[in-house]
Amino acid sequence: MALPGPFERLIGLLKRLPGVGEKSARRMAFFVFQAPEGYSIELADAFLSLKKNLSVCEICGNLTDRQPCNICSDPLRDRSTLCVVEGIEDLLSIEQAGVYDGLYYVLGGTVSPLDGEDLPEGSLDGLINMIERGRVSEVIVATNPRVEGDMTYHAVLSALKGMSDLKKSRLSYGLPVGGSIEFADRVTLHAAMETRIFVSGED
Amino acid sequence: MALPGPFERLIGLLKRLPGVGEKSARRMAFFVFQAPEGYSIELADAFLSLKKNLSVCEICGNLTDRQPCNICSDPLRDRSTLCVVEGIEDLLSIEQAGVYDGLYYVLGGTVSPLDGEDLPEGSLDGLINMIERGRVSEVIVATNPRVEGDMTYHAVLSALKGMSDLKKSRLSYGLPVGGSIEFADRVTLHAAMETRIFVSGED
Ligand SMILES: [Zn+2]
Ligand SMILES: [Zn+2]
After folding, report:
1. Which residues in chain B (15-44) have CB-CB distances under 8 A to chain A?
2. Which of A103, B93, B157, B196 is the most buried (most CB within 10 A)?
3. Same fold, A5-53 and A63-170
């Protein structure tokens, strides 16, 4: 039997979401069908509002509904420390863990050895801009513990090579190697932040 | 940090869905933010359309966008067999498994011994209606293998007590095919032992 069209259609769309398979999409659609109509109306509106009202911070690349973002404009954050991450997901995970109160810079990608791809065009310019215009004294390179992350770490370091007053560090490998920051638990993230390795010279 | 309002709002709504926690809601919202706008527009519309265009079949209780539903109006289905299920989820699972081609009747609930609750008002009337108006010769009571399901099974049976020409059956309980004795719980093992199949001759 084909399920009714509106049901199949919603399931098809839900299955595109990360981590959602046929069965869970079906359960979700069914839940929505049984919930009060207000819930679908709110959900529909929230999806539309996400694309309409959210953008990317022009300074740091964070997800935001204003320019600059909450973090860049927060006077209570430590403006001497800059944490460089691959993507917004990583920034969100570190924020959720509550283990860091400096600024961020989102690269928006990694060096990709297999595709022969470099960091996204201009992504290091924005980083250097933040360092030069601000009063950053330490850059923590918080890339993921994978080949791409390591290569990205080295690409960032080499872009900062001339800045000898700048402390450079990376997260320590308390992170499960082969895993990702996004799925790390709070304690692991905290440990990785605490035991970050300071980098001297040309490493 | 509080995440931007539109992001938090969507996450809050997504977390109400079955099987969706904080992290997966965040990943979903983030996916939607990064996907082309057409996706959120489609998704929003699909949620609204679900409530607008779907209802419950007036004959059998199935989810449908027409009256009567696909199954009730399908001339190729075996109209002599009626499968009674607790809820639409069960109907959908049996349909997806493709192991049955008769009609259904959805009770829309179970007998609930702890709450002292009976089957939903009038749900047995609809069942008797289907049997009397149709040419049903067998009723399969496919309730879930739990206390509620068993009590519901007995409630259905006693409602059909007068109909002596009608065959009545229930799904067999036993080991899940592909599963193992090692991991089967005690109750399942007991059921599998009690309803063991006697083998005659050379089989
Ligand atoms: Zn920012
Ligand atoms: Zn029907």
Report:
1. 16-20, 23-24, 26-33, 35, 37, 39-44
2. A103
3. no
B185: CB partners within 8 A, 6+ apart: none
CB of B85 within 8 Å of any CB in chain A? Answer: no
If one looks up domain B63-170 in CATH, what number appears? 3.40.1360.10
- Where along chain A do its domains lie? 5-53, 63-170
Span B5-53: which CATH code?
1.10.8.420
Burial of B59 (0-12, 13-18, 19+ CB in 10 A): buried
Decide if A101 touches B, using CB distance below 8 A: no
Q: What is the value of pTM for the model shown?
A: 0.72
Q: Could you tell me which of A99, A169, A107, A103 has the C-alpha nearest to residue A135? A: A103
